[in-house]
Design a protein that fits this description.
The complex is a heterotrimer of chains A (148), B (640) and C (204).
Chain A lengths: L1 H9 L7 H12 L4 H11 L3 H10 L11 E6 L2 H5 L2 H12 L12 E6 L10 E4 L2 E4 L3 H9 L3
Parallel strand pairs in A: 1-2
Antiparallel strand pairs in A: 1-3, 3-4
Chain B lengths: L7 H15 L3 E6 L2 H5 L2 H14 L6 E6 L11 E4 L3 E3 L7 H11 L8 E2 L6 E2 L6 H4 L17 H6 L4 H9 L2 H11 L11 H10 L6 E6 L8 H8 L1 H15 L3 E7 L3 H16 L15 E7 L8 H8 L23 E5 H12 L2 H5 L9 E8 L5 E6 L4 H8 L9 E6 L5 E4 L9 H6 L8 E6 L4 H15 L5 H18 L7 H15 L3 H5 L2 H19 L12 E5 L9 H5 L5 E4 L2 E5 L9 H5 L7 E5 L20
Parallel strand pairs in B: 1-2, 7-8, 7-10, 8-9, 11-15
Antiparallel strand pairs in B: 1-3, 3-4, 5-6, 11-12, 13-14, 13-15, 16-19, 17-18
Helix pairs in contact in B: 7-11, 7-14, 8-9, 8-11, 10-11, 10-12, 11-14, 18-19, 18-22, 19-20, 20-22
Chain C lengths: L2 E6 L2 E6 L4 H7 L23 E6 L2 E6 L10 E3 L3 H17 L4 H9 L19 H9 L5 E4 L6 E4 L1 H7 L6 H4 L4 H5 L10 H9 L1
Parallel strand pairs in C: 1-5
Antiparallel strand pairs in C: 1-2, 3-4, 3-5, 6-7
Helix pairs in contact in C: 2-3
Classes of the chains: A alpha+beta (148), B alpha/beta (640), C alpha+beta (204).
């Protein structure tokens, strides 16, 4: 938990930095391990139930480990009317994962985003930070195959 | 690096120096915002830098990595300045030709120009491209000339001179009066006059007060604020500092959503630079006024855009709205007076102060002054960020700037105001867009999302989309919002699943009224708007779903079937092989047909059927004709 | 704080500034229904049963009496048709969530609500937050909290804390208006509703 302590120290222990600290922990581990939350509760003297409320309130946080490859389908309004539901359906079928979930082999986590602000490309899928505008079924196959 | 500026004379001297250094230079401005980068703009910039070095042109030509120019569809965009020559969809392999022909030999390269979709003619200058022609880019236009990491670029354009004017020649009261006189209205949602808000915070008795930039742009399909904060963070900061001076505040926050990493990075860097230059911190420009800014990242919650929820989040707590019977302008962060405006509103302040309220008042309509930036997206040819004077008609925005609807489809509606807004039908296309007119139509300006929908969009499905969004994004604290939206969503779901009942429309209306009246905050108070406007303008679509079990736009899966038309099928096997459900039967030389029981309605067959056959159709509200198993294809000569 | 004069259901009252409409109405003997309100806890404004209509000049709007402060010259209607129809709808919502519970059936009877038009999704919790707030504000134990948001929001025990504090307390048992807590928990955790259960359900 030294990483948690280091992050807390960076914010000089201020309670008001809780969300900023959680964002940093999320960036460090890609999820929020329970031990980290308990440690944070001790360090900041914030009740654990409040930390859980925040951690389950904001979409940036994950309380379970995520897969090796993060697949994000944008379901913002512009993408939605340009066919994001069909794209999401295809991705779900191909990966056999439901949105918000991780495949049992920890290969993929599928998430949806409310708008990534690249509406001109829509419908958009982002995998490991790489953007794909309106990928066809064949494109998807190649993209996923390349993920170990 | 100029060091700390200790007076307004210092600032003006620096500006002169920067301009003198730039005399006679040419600039290659590459649109390198978040969306440009997804289309390879970084690679284009690197290619330019390498090529310029190779050709030894570093003294004459400078490459600028700028924020978004607005025309996202055509990214990466390369603008050659001062001529204003515009190349679109540029690739790294085009770069050496651009340098050798356009920069060295002053020759236009026809093939990289934007082509007028009507005449097919290449258009040389940015200003002549129809997308830009109808715009008035007073706020967003600066993006083209600024590398957001270089404060000097902003200063060269006259940046921070409005701040200098305010600090040097105006009292805080005069600044406040000028903003009130300019009638700058909040660009984040309700259009509340910024000056009146500022005054409330200024007059609140508490000594410590705050100003906040709301960059939590949560409306799906809206990214104006991202474009501004990424591309011109100093423009926003300058407005904020002027506001702080007028209100009498020494501490400010920028609340930016974590989904915008580049905007966060750029604004943090801009704050550091402004501090180095003495434009933030103690004794700004030697005026005796102190002001600091901190960046706070939002962790992803639409409701955080609501002012009291945003302020609770800055305190490090769950971003739940508070009952706002005492305004946040009086009791905000830590119960202290806090003035919140969104990015675009702050970016308008330097215009009103730097030029004058009279000038600002000369643009726009009676009640709405200045310009408004929209993100024009959806089923429209030219997607991008668009800035027009208030009062421009929806038709001008969608057809003149936006180029109309692609693929020969018909316009159906435009959705404005995000999840709190509504859908506006064709008969109101000539409405001049301003705060009051859109509200009159049952929608709202909101932050400026403008999502164009064509005949292939189902309005019931759109309403369901927003309700689903809001029921997940509601904080869930109060019963009318949480349970009301849950029940409204249930009803919309059953309408879409062919289980709609007589009376469902009326029940939706009844529920809407309670949710609007009784909810704790504005999220619930406006959440039913997408349902109410679609019922108001597209009631027939609801009725078709409920009474005829038909989706007129053929979108709602439970109400549609895919069908292979036997007279068009050429038995090419493509759909049969691609169907993930194995639902397509037939074979070589035999007409294909879909087993409706097995079909998951994924639409792959329609996607892969060669357009020259066009054999797959969507049906809704009519029985699927029985299959003709083992029927041989009669090949027809198909016109190529 | 100085006093202000306002009118509730036609009766004039001089109230201390800072008082809520609910408190002022109660002083007048006017009964406004509440669910999430508890004198010993900070006002919360979540159930909205105490919605009342206020009229200021030309404009009228609905506010929650438990959190809205008294104002000079305000006209308040605690039983107008608009307010009653809101309460009736809220009761219908609660009947779907917590059918066959005394508090809600009594409310339904009082407002003549004969049943709910909505599908029962009975989990008993109407998220009034009395348990969470009492545990935090009065007991300072924080053994139970909220998790999730929107329609997924719920209350959950934190077993780490509950196992140490709850068995000897159990004071939230009688506070719970729908009796979910006494029915579904041993005081350490809900049968399937700890924070960990919530999380494992989310990841599946």
């Amino acid at each position: 938990m030294t990483a948690v302590d280091e992050i807390v120290d960076r914010y000089q222990g201020g309670k008001s930095a809780l969300i900023q600290i959680l964002l940093d922990i999320q960036r460090e581990y890609y999820w929020l391990p329970k031990e980290a939350l308990i440690r944070l509760s001790e360090r900041l003297e914030i009740p654990l139930n409040q930390i859980y409320h925040i951690a389950t309130f904001y979409t940036a946080f994950s309380l379970t480990p995520r897969g090796r490859h993060q697949v994000m389908v944008c379901t913002g309004t512009a993408c939605y009317i340009r066919g994001a539901p069909q794209l999401l359906h295809k991705v779900e079928e191909m990966l056999k994962v439901k949105p918000g979930k991780t495949s049992s082999d920890m290969r993929f986590t599928l998430i949806t985003a409310n708008c990534l602000g690249c509406c001109a490309l829509g419908p958009v899928m982002v995998i490991n930070g790489e953007y794909h505008g309106n990928p066809t079924t064949a494109d998807l196959g190649h993209i996923f195959e390349a993920c170990e | 690096m100029a060091g700390r500026l200790t007076s307004i004379v210092d600032l003006e001297r620096l500006r002169d120096e920067i301009l003198a250094k730039r005399q006679g230079r040419r600039f290659i401005s590459v649109s390198n915002g978040s969306d440009g980068r997804t289309r390879g703009s970084w690679e284009v910039i690197r290619a330019f830098v390498d090529e310029i070095e190779k050709q030894g042109l570093e003294k004459e030509v400078e490459v600028k990595s700028t924020g978004c120019h607005g025309f996202c569809q055509m990214e990466p965009i390369v603008l050659i300045l001062p001529e204003g020559i515009c190349y679109v969809q540029v690739k790294p392999e085009h770069v050496s030709e651009i340098i050798s022909k356009t920069l060295i030999q002053n020759e236009i390269i026809e093939q990289f120009l934007y082509r007028d979709p009507v005449t097919g003619q290449g258009i040389t200058h940015e200003s002549e491209i129809p997308f830009y022609k109808g715009q008035a880019r007073l706020v967003l236009g600066n993006n083209r000339f600024i590398d957001p990491w270089h404060i000097d670029d902003y200063i060269a354009l006259g940046g921070y001179s409005a701040l200098a004017k305010a600090l040097d020649k105006m009292t805080p009261e005069q600044v406040l009066d000028e903003v009130k006189r300019a009638n700058v209205r909040g660009r984040g949602g309700s259009g509340f006059p910024a000056g009146i808000k500022w005054e409330t915070t200024r007059n609140a008795p508490e000594k410590i007060k705050y100003v906040i930039v709301n960059a939590d742009e949560g409306d799906p399909g809206a990214y104006m604020d991202r474009g501004l904060l990424e591309g011109n963070p100093h423009g926003v900061l300058e407005g904020l500092i002027i506001g702080a001076y007028a209100i009498g505040v020494h501490e400010g926050f920028v609340y930016v959503r974590q989904e915008y990493p580049l905007a966060t990075e750029n604004v943090i860097h801009a704050i550091e630079q402004a501090e180095e230059y003495g434009l933030l911190g103690e004794n700004i420009l030697g005026s005796g006024f102190d002001f600091t800014v901190t960046v706070h990242r939002g962790a992803g919650a639409f409701v955080s855009g609501e002012s009291s929820a945003l302020m609770t989040a800055i305190e490090g707590k769950v971003g739940e709205p508070r009952p706002k019977y005492i305004h946040t302008s009086v009791k905000g962060i830590w119960e202290r007076p806090s003035n919140l405006n969104n990015v675009e509103t702050w970016a308008n302040v330097p215009l009103a102060i730097g030029r004058s309220a009279d000038w600002y008042n000369s643009i726009g309509t009676e009640g709405s002054k200045g310009t408004k930036i929209f993100s024009l997206v959806g089923k429209v040819k030219n997607t991008g960020l668009v800035e027009v004077p208030m009062g421009t008609s929806l038709r001008d925005i969608i057809y003149d700037v936006g180029g109309g609807i692609p693929n020969g489809r018909r316009f159906k509606a435009v959705q404005t105001g995000g999840p709190s807004g509504g859908c506006i039908p064709e008969q109101f296309l000539d409405t001049p867009v301003d705060f009051d007119q859109l509200t009159e139509l049952g929608s709202m300006m909101g932050s400026g999302g403008m999502i164009v929908m064509d005949e292939d969009t189902c309005m019931v499905d759109v309403a369901r989309y927003f309700l689903n969004f809001l029921s997940e994004e509601s904080c869930g604290k109060c019963i009318p919002c949480r349970e009301g939206l849950r029940q409204m969503l249930n009803i919309l779901n059953r309408i879409i699943e062919a289980n709609g009942k007589e009376g469902d429309i009326e029940l939706l209306e009844e529920l809407s009224e309670v949710v609007i009246d009784a909810s704790l905050c504005a999220l619930g108070g406006t959440a039913p708007n997408p349902v109410l406007t679609t019922i108001k303008y597209f009631r027939n679509e609801y009725e078709a779903h409920i009474k005829e079990k038909r989706c007129p736009a053929k979108v709602c899966k439970p109400l549609i079937s895919y069908y292979i038309q036997p007279d068009k099928c050429q038995a090419c096997l493509i759909c049969l092989r691609n169907c993930p459900a194995g639902a397509i039967h037939g074979g070589k030389g035999l007409i294909h047909w879909i087993d409706q029981e097995k079909c998951t309605k994924c639409g792959v067959c329609l996607e892969v059927c060669p357009p020259r056959f066009d054999a797959v159709a969507k049906l809704s509200g009519e029985p699927v004709p029985p299959p003709l198993p083992e029927t041989k294809v009669i090949r027809k000569r198909v016109a190529q | 704080m100085k006093t202000v004069t306002l009118e509730i259901d036609g009766k004039k009252i001089e109230a201390k500034g800072g008082m809520t409409l609910l408190e002022a109405a109660r002083e007048l003997g006017i009964e406004i229904p509440t669910l999430c309100y508890q004198e010993q806890l900070a006002p919360y404004g979540a159930c909205r049963l105490c919605s009342v209509e206020i009229i200021k000049g030309e404009r009228s709007r609905v506010v929650a009496a438990c959190v809205y402060p008294v104002e000079e010259g305000l006209i308040v209607k605690t039983d107008s048709p608009r307010v009653v129809s809101i309460r009736r709808m809220l009761i219908e919502f609660m009947l779907a969530v917590a059918p066959r519970t005394k508090v809600i059936e009594d409310l339904a009877a009082r407002y003549g609500v004969e049943g709910t038009r909505f599908e029962a999704e009975a989990n008993l919790c109407i998220l009034c937050g009395l348990c969470v707030r009492y545990c935090a504000e009065v007991k300072k134990a924080n053994a139970i909290g909220f998790v999730g948001r929107g329609i997924s929001r719920q209350v959950a025990f934190l077993p780490e804390i509950a196992s140490k504090t709850c068995m000897s307390c159990r004071e939230c048992f009688s506070l719970c208006p729908t009796a979910k807590i006494p029915r579904e928990t041993d005081g350490v955790c809900f049968l399937d509703l700890t924070v960990d259960d919530f999380l494992s359900r989310q990841s599946k």
